[in-house]
Amino acid sequence: MGYHAHRVTGPAFVLGQLFLSGPLGILRGWTLLNSRIPESADLESRLENTLVVLRAANKWQGFGDHPELKNEILHLAQMDLIDFSAREHTARFKAK
User: What would the pLDDT profile of 55-95 be if each residue is shown by its tens digit?
Assistant: First the structure.
């Protein structure tokens, strides 16, 4: 009796995993596509300038210190070029 149950549950498990992991993979891919950094003609130079400014400060800072560079700072954090911490409901960052 146990052998018959294993013959049925094995393929059912595999099919269940296929049907559940397919949509999950699509959603994961959609999330990755949406989180890409947008292409812009001057974005690379702005990111380099922002990184120079943050390295010159050489301390933990907040968005209040550089409100005009918020998007560039978030892109640098996404690329893991700066240390970024969102502790205590405030975002702090420091150049590596």
Answer: 999 899 988 899 999 999 999 999 999 998 887 778 888 88
Residue 4: the pLDDT is 63
Amino acid at 8: V
Asked if residue 85 lies in contact with residue 91, where contact means CB atoms within 8 angstroms, the answer is yes
Name the average pLDDT for the chain: 87
The encoded tokens of residue 15 equal 């099919």
pTM: 0.68
CA distances from 72 to 34, 48, 53, 95 (A): 17, 9, 11, 13
Is 65 exposed, middle or buried (CB count within 10 Å of its CB: 0-12, 13-18, 19+)?
middle
SS3 content of the chain, % helix, strand, coil (to 5): 65, 10, 25
Q: Which residues contact 43 (CB under 8 A, 6 or more apart)?
A: 37, 75
